[in-house]
Amino acid sequence: MTLTELKYIVTLAQERHFRRAAERCFVSQPTLSVAIKKLEDELDVTIFERNRSDVRVTMAGERIVGQARKVLEEAELVKQIAQEGKGQLNLPLRVGAIFTVGPYLFPHLIRNIKRIAPDMPLVLEENYTGVLRQKLRNGELDAIIISLPFDEPDVEIQDLYDESFVVLIPTIHPLAKQEKITRKQLEKENILMLGDGHCFRDQVLNACPGILKHSDETSLPQGTSLETLRHMVASGLGLTILPSSSTDKHIYDSDTLVERPFAGKTPYRRVSIVSRQRFSRPKAVAALVEAITSCALPGAATL
């Protein structure tokens, strides 16, 4: 039994597909298949049930894969401890962020981290919360920046900032003349939304549960990013709701788009950083927190 074989079974359990698992492990599919079969033979147990269209983890396999994750985490910890002699702030830090945070936070973060920890480069990734969660658990990322709620065992969560939501409106739209927008008014409009899988979509629907009453989701396109939503609003397709950190008046001027706050209680989201409880570089995470909380993000209130 090797760490490589354990990595293979953990990855296959995540992907449920041999080709995708092999690609993630940077090996050929036959190499992955042979290694997993060898491990099953060594343990004398079936870890995966295989058919032409699906791969499923057996009941015994679930326990084995869970323990394999813990072994891989411990192995990563050994590597990190071995590197501690070089200093916690002298090694790259692997940081992930959700799609609706990364593009707007990273430019400010890079400027600040160079001042706080100049010898600690950042390896950055944007992804969905679920993918970031898995990569943090598997030791592929050292810290992730997400939006609450977030529930995961054996992690440290530090709140960073709250940011309000704003309504993005074409300048020619009648609502552009108002100083504030009510939720009732939005219920009568075509509201462009991100697609399923984006936590910001869920947060908007929780804050404004009636905004899809008028919109026909089958005919309205879903945005793949906040920027695609911005461009579609500029084209006159509808309105959208954005987190305030994503507001950028350099792309479209006020002759094309305007931003308006909500009337009444303003909806917002809380952005937090998550790391493993036993991560061996707490000073690196602290430096990251300091760099983020010193960023001057539009509409963000640090905690």
Tell me what the structure shows.
This protein has 10 helices and 11 strands. α5 (102-116) links the parallel β3 (93-98) and β4 (122-127). It has helices spanning 3-15, 18-25, 29-43, 59-83, 102-116, 129-137, 183-186, 199-207, 226-234, 282-293; strands spanning 48-50, 55-57, 93-98, 122-127, 143-147, 155-170, 191-192, 239-243, 257-260, 268-276, 300-302. The chain is α/β, with parallel strands linked by helices. The mean pLDDT is 89. The longest helix is centred in the N-terminal third of the chain and has 25 residues, at 59-83. It folds into 2 domains: 3-83, Arc Repressor Mutant, subunit A (Orthogonal Bundle); 87-303, 3-Layer(aba) Sandwich (D-Maltodextrin-Binding Protein, domain 2), CATH 3.40.190.290. α1 (3-15) packs across α2 and α5 (102-116) packs across α10. Strands 3, 4, 5, 6, 7, 8, 9, 10 and 11 form a 9-stranded mixed β-sheet that branches. Strands 1-2 form a two-stranded antiparallel sheet. This is LysR family transcriptional regulator. InterPro entries: LysR_HTH_N, LysR_subst-bd, WH-like_DNA-bd_sf, WH_DNA-bd_sf.
